Amino acid sequence: MKSRTSAISNKACRICLVRHGETAWNAERRLQGHIDIPLNTTGLSQAEATARSLARAGLRFSALYSSDLERARQTAAAITRLHALPPTHDARLRERHYGHFQGMTFDEAEARHPEHFRRFRGRDPHFALPDQGESLVGLAARVHAALEDIAGRHAGESVVVVTHGGVLDIVHRLATGQPLETARDFAIPNAALNWIEHSAGNWRLIAWADESHLHGALDELPGT
User: Fold this and answer.
1) How far apart are CA 179 and CA 192, in angstroms?
2) Which of 85, 93, 108, 214 lies in the 20 to 30 Å Cα band around 65?
């Protein structure tokens, strides 16, 4: 985890991003995408632990935003119960659509569609998988738009955003300037806390992958 830097300015928006808790498909290492898989027992416990961690920190949040997929909604609901923040669900915070890979493990995807898998694992930024799949460029555009809107509404405030691993991959790159096509070299655990800040039109990373409140969490699939 990277340490936090100096306090935010009066007009900066600070966002705590949370990846949803674990699902059965996370444990099976399956690509979920837009398929609506709920949290498993571990994921429900992780969501509660995340909510308690935010409460113990004594932080005041002005709003809670969440993907509209069930695994994110369930995670956000745990935060709502402890912080009395009604969630705003935004489809732009959904996971990347993985087209005909959705529901498959990596091994299955590679065996059935080797050329598509090669381009997918190679992080070709303009490659979109068949059957409504989303390119990294397309995903980045919608994630950037959602975060810019949130930051614009909450200047000088702190908010929580519950989302997905693929989205957090984009967020980290937005805050650090790392290109879309480079291999991921940072963790994205289920239910961890990730902090970014928006100020004067710029994004920066404050802290990443804080899982000190968890007893082990699965990282996002490599290459996604």
Assistant:
1) 23
2) 214
Is 95 annotated as catalytic? Answer: yes
What is the fold of 21-154+165-210?
Answer: Rossmann fold (3.40.50)
20 labelled catalytic = yes
Q: Residue 53 carries which side chain, given as an amino acid letter?
A: S
Q: Which tens digit of pLDDT belongs to each residue from 65-98? A: 999 999 999 999 999 999 999 999 999 999 999 9
CB atoms within 10 A of CB 69: 24
Listed by start position, the domains of the chain span: 21-154+165-210
Among the listed residues 140, 148, 217, the one whose alpha carbon sits nearest the alpha carbon of residue 172: 140
Residue 65's beta-bridge partner residues?
88, 161
Instruction: State the catalytic residue, choosing from 22, 95, 134, 197.
Output: 95
The per-residue pLDDT for range 127-171, each reduced to its tens digit, is 999 999 999 999 999 999 999 999 999 999 999 999 999 999 999
Catalytic residue of the set 20, 97, 113, 213 = 20
